[in-house]
Amino acid sequence: MRTESLDSSYLALPDDGGPFAGVVVVHEAFGLNDNIRDICGRFAGEGYAALGVDLFEGRSRAVCMARMLVGGLAGNLDYYGVPGLKDALGRLAGHPEVDGERIGAIGFCLGGSIVLTWACTEDRLTAVAPFYGSAPRPRGAMRRLCPVVGSWPGKDFTTRAAGVLETELTAAGIAHDLKIYPGAKHAFFNDRWRNYQPDAAADSWRRVLAFFDEHVRERPTG
Which helix (H) or strand (E) segment is 23 a member of? Predict the structure, then answer.
């Protein structure tokens, strides 16, 4: 694996030459930390160019999160953080070793919510993988989403989003794989956090890779 910096973002690349399919990795409330860098490395090990973004870079985390929350509740699809992700995708797509027509995104908690909102207005994404993310508002916007592979714990403030997405994505004929893990808690994928649940984490990672193989890596281009 090779690593580079793209402005404030962390880029992990496979050792072999590209062009690679890409993944934008969006952090939880903890920001761009070693857990997110590890996830980027795991994607690189699977043959993807993975860009870990920092939505809080140079700013107050509390202020950034408040602006995201208010924007999401108001149904603003371009709320704070979304323009930054669009810029990050452009930087990733412009990298000489990345195929800009094959890019997905994954996000966790705050990142899962913003990835879903971003994908409602982003035609360049070919699939997204929200973990414990909330459903975007307005609900009708979800019918413009790309394919979605989503994972939630059984009892969480975000779990209801799985049913909302199931209804909207089915109605729109959008490919999706949504799963709730009954015994898991919030942040079950984070192996550096007390709620880490190995079985749920392993199964959700397997599903993400299989879904991204179909909708990102093997997506017909041209």
Answer: strand 20-26
